[in-house]
Amino acid sequence: MANPSDLEGFLRAVFDAAILAVDPRAILAPFLPQRPKGRVVVMGAGKATARMAQAVEAAWGPCEGLIAVPHGARLPLAGIEVVETAHPVPDAASEATARRMLDMARGLGANDLALFLISGGGSALLAAPAEGVSLADKQAVHQALLRSGASISQMNLLRKNLSAIKGGHLAVAAHPAQVVTLLISDVPGDDPAIIASGPTVPDPSTLAQAQAVVARFGLDLPPKVAAFLETGTGTPPVDHPVFAAAQTHMIATPMAALRAAQTHAQALWPDLNVVILGDALEGEARDLGQAMSGIAQSILRHGVPFAAPVLLLSGGETTVTLGQSKAGRGGRNSEFLLSFAAHAPEGLYALACDTDGIDGAGQNAGAIWSPRVAKASAAFDKLAYLVGHDSLSFFEAADGVITTGPTHTNVNDFRAILIPAGLSS
Fold first, then answer.
1. 3-state DSSP call for residue 227?
2. Number of folded domains in the chain?
């Protein structure tokens, strides 16, 4: 069967299918427990939490509770209070909301249910620094981590060991209530202890491991933070009784989105070879972009490891190491795609977007690469934009930016590379 006539539209449709598959409104209800006789209090934080809360109230009616979402991600709810706090660096609202949530959890009894809704982004949205550590200290740590090139797992390991709410502290505050956590994963491996720094699940990490992250990336810590890592208490013990009875359910994952994209692409183009490379591809965004261009060249030259036409799908969270240099505008997805474009053969199509609809600090989800975009940017120095971490400016000038607005879900990065048949490397 012939390929679709609009290949850019094809990639957008595949991306849209991935997002739909992890929309909380469509998938959350089967994971809800039976309602208890006592109170039900809904709490949580993350980029997908407002949509998750809507799904809860659609099933149970108005509920009491408190959730934190990024600015611009508020949705209407009947009973649950929604507070907008800062991301990716916490602000005063992040701390105030976290303290309120801890007090709310401490007010529950044995006959009550604490229903926690957690998704990526919660680490910044709820920030209750450990005793002796200030919000300004935590902000400095966040800023240093964002520039360091550390992975999301490494970032969250350090952040939860400096927190009074992460790493299981929030669940401990709710004891002896019944604790149920519904999670949407945005991390490679889908580890509940890493998602939003695991406020409701046991955490096996140690202060020594947090110190190792600091040493590996040469982080310049505020004195109070360095002192706490030497003398602090870290996260609650994993054998705390609240964790023995708690229920934790993963309702959406990066692989679920990739599989939905694969199914949709195959339905639109039955003769296309659609391959999922994995949901946990990490490393520097520009390095992965160049590596993917090498795979594309091998496919075109040798039909290895796959024969064209082929669609390569992948997920995971890359990093962008800024160091101390002044950077332009862009996120990890647009940087990945610019690196891919700088090294790839002509005639390819590719899309790289964050499934939450926000790539980096911009208002775009990511970008698309195609012969149309290549023609519009033929006179641009791609490597100069890449060196300056200015990928968003590049794609804006070439009309390759993808803007979705907040999707109200979040299963990390989504990448699709289409290699048509009949091209030469």
1. helix
2. 2
